[in-house]
Amino acid sequence: MSWFKLFLTIPWSARIGVLLILFFSFCAVFAPWLAPYGESEVVGDVWEPIGGNYVFGTDQIGRDLLSRLIFGARNTISLALFTTACAFLFGSILGFIAATMRGIVDQVLSRFVDIIISIPTLIFALIMLSAVGTAIPSLVTIISIIYAMPVYRIARAVAMDIEVMEYVEVARLRGEGLWWIMRREILPNALTPLAAEFGIRFCFVFLLISGLSFLGLGLQPPLADWGAMVQENGAGIAWGFYHPLIPASCIALLTIGINLMVDHIVHKASGLRDEH
C-alpha cells in the first residue's frame, strides 16, 4: 500500500515512465509464459497482416511478431541492464580511485579516459566488434568499456567534491584505508547522482545495442532483438507492411519511460518542488 501511495505522489509524467518500465520489465521477466509461440517458431505465412490470425502479424519468414517482441524485450533489456551495471562498476571504481589517490594515478586514468571518449562511440564499437566478433561476452565487454568512460568522469567529479568534506578528513586522520573511505564515506553520498546517471546510461546502452543489432553486429539470430527486428522487416515497408514500426515503437517507448523516470529522480534530488 505504501508503494501505491508513493506512486500517487509523483508527477503524472513520472507515473507514465514507471508504468512503461514496469510493463516492459514484466514482459522481459515472464517472456516464456507470455509469448504464445516460441522465439524462433515459424507459425504462418510471410508478413501476415496485423490484427489477423496473429495480433501483430508475422515477420519476414513467418514467425509470430508478438512472441518475437516479448522475447526481444527479455534479450535486449537484460543485456543492456547487465552491460550498464558492468560499465558503472568499472567506471565508478576507477573514478573513486582517481579522486581519492589523485596525483599521477589521477592524471594517467584521466588521460586514458580522454583518449577513449575522443573516439566516436559507434565507430569504436563497429571497429572492435568487427575485429573480435559479435559474441555476447565481446558485446558486453566493448560496450562496458565505452560507457565506463563517461561514468568515470561523473564518479570522479562527485567523489572529489565529497573527498574534501570534513568527515572524510576525519576518517583519514583515524587511519582508515582507501577502500574503507570509498565504501563507507564516498559511495553512500554519491549514490543519488550515480543512480540518475545509471538510468541515462542505460538508455544509451540500450539504443547502442539496438543500433548494432540493426547493423548486424548485435545479438545474432535466432535470438530476438528489437533493433534486428526493425532491420529484418524493413523491406516490408515498400510493400505496405508496417511491421518494422512495432519494434521501433517499443524502443522509443522504453527510452521515453526511462527518461521520464530519471527526470523525476534528478528533479527530486535537486530539492525543487514538483509541478503536478
If you had to describe this structure to a student in words, what would you say it looks like?
The chain is mainly α and 276 residues long. It has one domain (23-35, 56-270): MetI-like (MetI-like fold, Orthogonal Bundle). The chain is built from 11 helices and no strands. It has helices at 2-9, 12-29, 31-34, 65-101, 103-118, 121-132, 136-163, 166-173, 178-214, 226-232, 245-270. The chain is globular and about 75 Å long.
What descriptive keywords fit this protein?
276 residues; mainly alpha; MetI-like fold; 73% helix
The tally of beta strands, per DSSP, is 0
Overall mean pLDDT: 86
What's the SSE pattern? HHHHHHHHHHH
Low-pLDDT stretches are none
Radius of gyration: 22 Å
Q: What is the CATH topology assignment?
A: MetI-like fold
Our count of helices gives: 11
CATH superfamily: MetI-like
> How many structural domains does the protein architecture include?
1
Q: Give the % helix.
A: over 70%
Output the CATH class name: Mainly Alpha
